[in-house]
Amino acid sequence: MAPTTEKERNVLQEKANRLVEFQTEILDSLTQGESPKEIAKLSRQFLTRIYGKENDLSPPSGADLGISVNKVCNLRCSHCYYANTHVPDNTEEGAIDAKKWRDVTSQAVDLGMSHISIIGKEPLLSPDKTRAILETIDEKRKKGFGVRQEIITNGTLIDRNIDWLSQHSDFYFFSVSFDGYREDHDKVRGKGAYRSSLEGLKIAKRAGIKNLTAIFTAMPHNISSLERMVEDLAEAGFDYLSIGYCFPTAHNEQELTAGVDLFRRTVDLAPRLPSHLEVSLNILGDEHAPIIAELYKEGFFSFDSPAATEDLAPSLIIPLSQRTSTTPRALVNCTILPTVFYGGFRIDYDGTAMDFCADLRTQEKRGFGNVKDNTIKELYVKSRAIWPEYTERYYDRLSKALKGEKVGAVQNWYDVSGVK
Predict the structure, then answer these.
(1) Using one digit for the tens of pLDDT, what is the confidence trace for 67-80?
(2) pTM, rounded to two decimals
(3) Is the bond into 121 cis (omega within 30 degrees of 0)?
(4) How many CA atoms lie within 13 A of 332 on its CB side?
(5) How far is Cα of residue 369 from the mean position of the Cα atoms in its chain?
(6) CA angle (173 as vertex; 103, 304 as ends), nearest 5
(7) Beta 173-177 vs 212-218: how paired, if at all?
(8) What are 314-330's pLDDT values in tens digits?
(9) Sequence-distant (≥ 6) Cβ neighbours of residue 167 within 8 angstroms
(10) For residues 289 and 283, what is the distance between their CA atoms, to the nearest angstrom?
């Protein structure tokens, strides 16, 4: 809810100032050789002061439950971070059903998780499960819960699902993946994929789906077609453009990896995109540690007027352009504070609780519990027990990058051997 009084606005501004200062101090301290373990401890203390209480094991405001309703997809994208995209395993033994997903969603909202993200593998291949989650969110909203819903899809199956999707149109983000104009998109997603996804975006727009977002993953082969892609999509009608950067895993195609040069090109391109858009360039402290390290050395984080997000996504916000009649509102969103396991986690198709991405990058899934055996509250308590080690490994990786050491593909972030 937006602040309504001057006092509320001042409180939020002070909070934003502290978030900006603390995150830039982290980069300074790591560069100067301070222990990643000590930085991790200070970061955890800072986050609990800002968003909660030290010994309070309830989720902070904005906590997110990610949901993978399945482990199958109708595409095989060469840059995908899922290991089973590249080492096919399409069996779904042990998958939980729609009724259980209703229960999981209800538990999460009751606990205080206010953001539910349906993130794959391809949620529209499991319409009964995805629909059950959205229906549960609607029911909770009617009872007064302030909960947001988000979905990420490749867009090729929107046409066959639009009748029921349009009944749940109030999305925080309805995100469709586009990776360049036509041939560039199809190079990584398959022949005809661009045409199918574009048609899906148009259908969603006509059906009144809110907050349509195009997700673009920058790679060496597709950056030159970004502007043309956006011009084409603009006719379909979308509201937001989210730009991410391809990172290496043990299985995807390494030549697709994006570096700081590609980031610079998107920084130059963003202000030239259509003026109606909100454009976000997203770099993450884990996947993109080498990019952050190079930008720090260049003084990028000394830009005028940095800001920070209010909710539990305490990123550094660096404005690139403000909306005018000819330019979009464009910004860089850089994550320095690690909130996974503090502000949420993912439930996989079979009920396994895990982090949002790293567990899916290897063939040996680990996790720290299962909704078949644990309540969401019990799993959240377990996730908080993992959080300290996760933060230490997170800053160790960022520290190495800032020192100029090579950091490879991100693997599992945590050890669950001590978690009961």
Answers:
(1) 999 998 999 999 88
(2) 0.92
(3) yes
(4) 26
(5) 22
(6) 130
(7) parallel
(8) 788 888 888 888 888 89
(9) none
(10) 8
